[in-house]
Structure formats: C-alpha cells, structure tokens
Design brief:
The chain is mainly beta. The chain is built from one helix and eight strands.
Length: 230
C-alpha cells in the first residue's frame, strides 16, 4: 500500500513540474502572397510524458482573410495533433521542432478549397521572461492535403507552464535528480546515482559504490556491510 501511495505521489508531482503547458498565439498564414494572407489566433496544450524534450500536443486555430468581413462563413478552423521535441528544455532559451496532422474546416467551401486533412512542420523557440511566462515565436509549413495547397505560417505568442519548471525543480539531496523523481531521497553528497536518484552498485553485491570498500567483487560472492568478501 505504501508503495502504491508513493507511486501515485510521484506521478502527481511529475504532472505539475512543467509536464503540462499551454501556448497561446496570434497567427498569419501565407496564402498566395502576404497581402492576401489569413490572420487569426490559436492555442496548443502540450504534455511531456518523460523527463526529456519529447512533447505531445493538441492545437486549435481559427483564421480569416483580413480583406473579408469576418463572419463565421468566411472563417477557416483546424484541430491538429502534434509531436514535438524541445532541445535543452532546462535552459532559459528553448528551441524546438514539431510535426502535426489534423483536420481543417472551411466555413464557406469553394471549388479547390474545401474541408479536409492538413499536416504541418514547424520550428520555434521560447524565452523565459517571468517565472511562469515565456514569449514564443514559430515558423511553420502547413500542407492542405485535401486541396493540395502549400502555405507558410508565422506564430507569435506566449507559453505558460502549469507547475514548477524543470530547471527550477527542487533537489534536496543535490544528487542531480529532482525530488519529484527521486526514489531514494537523502543520498549522501557526492554519491553516484542512477536516473531514479538511487545509489549505483556497479558490482551488484548489494552495497552501493559510495559505501563499497572492495569494488569489483566477483558476482555471487557474499560480502559484509562494507562490500568486502566474507
């Protein structure tokens, strides 16, 4: 029961350590030439399932031509599932790339411009300006698969982490593994640990390296509390 509660606590803590974040942005999509471009807004919710740069996101966008009266019939909307990767997510400036696939709805369908599947590729960067706020810029290629159209887009907006940032996560024992991931808290200073924060036992004798006075004990040999053969 204690192990179950510990696991639940670790999972819950991890989810609030910047593993969920939101982006809100204004957009401009190039259609033929920039004068006829669509303008609009969108947002993206990202989930980080692992403690690396991999992200899964769900975004929604709504655009309209600036020369048109923006009634519902003139608007274009899409919902896209993204897979992205942040390079060095522990820093203040974080570049990233993503790819996505989804569906676009055209308010007023016309020949050669109807609702259908879309795909996208994008690169961007976010920069921390406040503890819970980054500014974001993206450039993306948007493929209208249904209508065989190629578009380019520009997104400018903000990034909001839900919870503590990865780079600011507390590490009470200083072993390099944040508390919300550390399964062996209180590790002595200088002790080598694995990704779970537990002391490494290189020779597998049951005595962690920082206590082992007889390293490289042959496998199967019984040892005392100091890691030396009996």
């Amino acid at each position: 029961m204690k192990r179950l509660l510990l696991s639940v606590a670790l999972i819950t803590s991890a989810l609030v350590a910047e593993n969920v974040n939101m982006q809100l942005f204004g957009s401009m999509i190039k259609s033929g030439n920039w004068k006829d471009s669509m303008r609009g807004a969108g947002g993206r919710i990202n989930i980080r399932p692992f403690q690396n740069g991999l992200l899964f996101g769900l975004e929604g966008n709504r655009y309209g031509y600036v020369d048109y009266k923006n009634t519902a019939s003139d608007m274009v909307s899409n919902v896209i599932f993204d897979v992205g990767y942040e390079f060095n997510p522990y820093s203040t400036l974080v570049p990233y790339a993503y790819a996505g696939y989804g569906y676009q709805t055209v308010g007023k369908p016309q020949p050669g411009f109807r609702s259908g599947q879309v795909g996208q590729l994008g690169v961007g960067a976010r920069y921390e300006v406040l503890k819970y706020l980054d500014v974001v810029g993206e450039v993306k290629y948007l493929k209208d698969i249904k209508n065989k159209l190629d578009n380019w887009g520009l997104n400018l907006g903000i990034f909001v982490p839900f919870g503590e940032r990865l780079k600011d996560a507390k590490d009470s024992d200083g072993d390099g593994v944040p508390d919300y991931l550390d399964q062996c808290p209180g590790t002595p200073k200088g002790a080598k640990v694995d990704p779970k924060g537990c002391p490494v036992d290189s020779d597998g004798d049951g005595v962690p390296d920082y206590k082992d006075q007889c390293p490289n004990t042959p496998k199967g040999v019984q040892v005392d509390e100091n890691g030396c053969p009996l």
